[in-house]
Amino acid sequence: MSHDTTIHRIVRPAVRRIAPTGVTPNQLTTLRLVTGLVAAAAFAVGGPIWPRIGGVIFLLSLLLDRADGELARQTGRSSPLGYRYDLVCDCLATVATFIGIGFGLVGSFGPGAILLGLIAGAGVCGLFWMLNVVKVAPVSTYRLWGGRIVIDTDDAMALVPVLIWCGAAKIELIAAASLTVAALLGLSLRGFLKRTATASDEQSIDGINPPA
Predict the structure, then answer these.
(1) Residue 193 counted as domain residue
(2) Which of 47, 70, 93, 172 is the most exposed place for a label (fewest CB within 10 A)?
(3) What's the pTM?
């Protein structure tokens, strides 16, 4: 995963100011989780106003998601425990986001919106597990316009508030449910093929060098 995406660059000057204050990366991670849950609650209320407010809070949460790791690197406080805490908070905030959007769309989309939100949330959980724990595949980084803009797959979440502000929340929820499940199935297949290939290679080695 890149630590120099465009969003990292945006938060870096603010983090430099925060670094001498004694604020810890875990405190920023906790604030990221809280703001993410507040945004999800705003999405769940529905209506014309609250989802728009939730979108603003969501963007703040997204910036905090980058700021905690940036602070850890600037202050030398990176740790395996902090990394795992960051992953858990990111997963919880993202899952809550899609479930919140689902509840918020019940009035205009029917009860199926909740089901789609739950499917998207479950897909997100699976993707976090496959990418960050099992590590079936690396998180892709993309450099656009000669490297002036750098994004990774996590940055796609910045589209969440944009689509809500554009009135495309229904399309967003359907896409999230479909794409997360499709990506999860694809990664699961990739992991299965990788394990099969590894087992085949081990059997070939054992055949060439039988135990004495």
Answers:
(1) no
(2) 47
(3) 0.88
Answer yes or no: is 77 within a domain.
yes
Tally of domains in the chain = 1
What is the pairing mode between strands 149-152 and 141-144? antiparallel
* Structural domain that includes position 59: 6-110+139-174
Residue 145 Cα distances to 25, 142, 149, 150, 151, angstroms: 31, 10, 6, 9, 11
Residue 145 or residue 73, greater confidence: 73
Q: Is the pLDDT score of 34 beyond 90?
A: yes
| Separation CA 89–CA 93 (nearest Å) | 6
Q: What is the residue type of 136?
A: V
